[in-house]
Design brief:
Blueprint lengths: L1 E4 L8 E7 L3 H9 L7 E7 L6 E5 L2 E5 L1 H4 L2 E5 L1
Antiparallel strand pairs: 1-6, 2-3, 2-6, 3-4, 4-5
């Protein structure tokens, strides 16, 4: 298994969160969205040139910015 950021993942790829590279305020924001260590995330799509990233967390579909996505480190196969 290798570790990459959510921004680097390919579409339709799944991964498990292993690290969040942020301060406590952004980590709390991720927590309110259901994103925390150990959680499985599926990347649905992204828009070219550092646009928003669409992800599936549990039963929810969420759009987050490219900068935020780069702070979420996942373990993928």
């Amino acid at each position: 298994m290798k570790k990459i950021s959510l921004a680097q993942m390919k579409e339709k790829q799944k991964g498990r969160v292993v690290e969040i590279l942020s301060g406590s305020s952004l980590e709390n924001r991720f927590l309110s969205m259901g994103i925390y260590k150990g959680r499985e995330i599926t990347k649905l799509s992204h828009f070219a040139l550092r646009g928003p990233v669409m992800i599936k967390v549990g039963r929810s579909v969420i759009g987050i910015g490219h900068g935020m996505a780069s702070k979420i480190i996942l373990e993928v196969e």
